[in-house]
Design a protein that fits this description.
With about 350 residues, the chain is an alpha+beta fold. It has one domain: Heat Shock Protein 90 (2-Layer Sandwich), CATH 3.30.565. The protein is built from ten helices and 13 strands. The strands form two sheets. Strands 1, 4, 5, 6, 7, 8, 9, 10, 11, 12 and 13 form an eleven-stranded mixed sheet that branches. A hairpin with a 4-residue loop joins strand 5 and strand 6. The radius of gyration is 21 Å and the shape is globular. The chain binds adenosine-5'-triphosphate and magnesium ion. The site of adenosine-5'-triphosphate has 24 residues, from helix 4.
């Protein structure tokens, strides 16, 4: 059972505004947390006693041996791209679940591109600059300007702490508090493998961001229209950190759980409404390790994300230490735009057709 642990609703605002390690440590000091010295899950057993009404550090994926798997990310941009892909999938899945609620017989889209066209009316982003009909192009750009607002990545930098934080926020389907640990915090589990319109398949990608961060905060709320009778309209939350057990060489990643089965703490719907959190997910990766200095990161992020997500399914916004977002549509779209501008003189104009998905032909 997810429990409230008597934590004041106002804490939700502190969770939302935490962007440095110090913010998180201050917040943790106000919470009823049992430290790892007093309670830990070791391989297959608990060291110490669970205390009701307290929060405890529990291994991500309920797997004490998660250290190696979570550290597989490679380049610092990859985990952010994984989060963005998850966000795009959550936006698509929200529309698919709504479609199923309206007409349960509707066949599923056969690819992510087909899903995006069906639910958002947007074709491959790199095909838009090539459309010769100016009125149609304008219409699509209007659509993109509406859709982009549902997913963003925001960079924070604290001069005082010399720390970066990266927030990824989507207004997708979200997860009910009781399911957060089985989805957002699971390892090696996915609910996408039988859906040809999804991309994720390993149940692994999202968690790579924990390895690049000192702390991560997670907040999630299911879209209200997807919640069945007896469902939970509240918001689930947690904090993730690495734990280095005394006298051991095998660190692991842990999150704050509110009950022994691993469920995360929650706030009621009223608390979510008070801070304007309607639905979807928000991840903040704090003291994020970009491996370089501040000015370079803000400049690099636009190029690097457009490169990694070369032709993304959906557009998104990037706030790179600015209040004005930049529209992100991938380098394929930028090349196509340049090629369209150059007209016949261009040798660059190469479009990218859909890739087949295994077993769906
Ligand atoms: N933004 C999100 N909104 C709702 N659910 C999410 C979101 N991100 C992740 N999830 C859930 O968490 C699970 C784990 O995500 P993760 O990225 O680790 O794996 P995946 O996307 O299934 O596969 P892959 O490892 O290939 O990315 C997903 O299967 C999905 O159920
Ligand atoms: Mg994924």
């Amino acid at each position: 059972m997810a429990v409230a642990n008597g934590i004041d609703d106002k804490v939700l605002q502190d969770i939302l505004s935490a962007t440095t390690s110090r913010d998180v440590e201050r917040l943790l000091a106000t919470l009823p947390v049992v430290e790892p010295e007093h309670y830990q899950r070791d391989y297959g057993k608990a060291l110490g006693c669970w205390r009701d009404e307290y929060l405890h550090w529990v291994p991500v994926g309920l797997d004490r041996g998660n250290g190696g798997r979570i550290k597989l990310a490679g380049q610092p941009m990859n985990p952010i791209a994984e989060r963005l892909v998850n966000g795009q999938e959550a936006l698509i899945e929200l529309e698919r679940l709504r479609e199923l609620a309206d007409s349960p017989e509707t066949p599923m889209p056969r690819s992510p591109r087909e899903a995006v066209l069906r639910y958002f009316g947007v074709p491959n982003l790199d095909s838009i600059p090539r459309i010769s009909d100016a009125a149609r192009r304008r219409k699509l750009i209007e659509k993109i300007n509406e859709v982009r607002k549902r997913l963003y990545v925001r960079l924070f930098y604290s001069k005082e702490a010399k720390e970066f934080a990266v927030a990824i926020r989507d207004e997708g389907m979200g997860q009910e508090p009781l399911r957060v640990h089985e989805t957002l915090l699971s390892l090696g589990q996915t609910d996408k493998a039988d859906k040809p319109y999804m991309i994720g398949v390993f149940g692994q990608g999202g968690s790579s961001a924990f390895a690049a961060s000192e702390y991560s905060t997670i907040i999630s709320r299911r879209a209200p229209d997807l919640i069945g009778r007896g469902g939970d309209n509240g918001v689930g939350w947690t904090i993730v950190r690495q734990i280095f057990p005394k006298g051991r060489r095998d660190p692991y990643f842990a999150y704050l759980a509110a009950s022994e089965d691993g469920a995360v703490p929650r706030f009621d719907a009223a608390a979510a409404e008070a801070v304007g959190f309607t639905h979807g997910c928000r991840f903040v990766h704090i003291d994020y390790d970009f491996g370089r200095s501040s000015a370079a990161v803000a400049r690099m992020l636009y190029q690097a994300l457009n490169h990694v997500l070369f032709n993304p399914m959906l557009p998104y916004d990037l706030f790179a230490l600015k209040e004005r977002p930049e529209l992100m549509q991938g380098t394929a779209q930028r090349l196509a735009r340049q090629a369209a501008g150059l007209g016949h003189r261009s040798a660059l104009d190469k479009s990218f057709s859909s890739q087949p998905v295994g077993g769906t032909a």
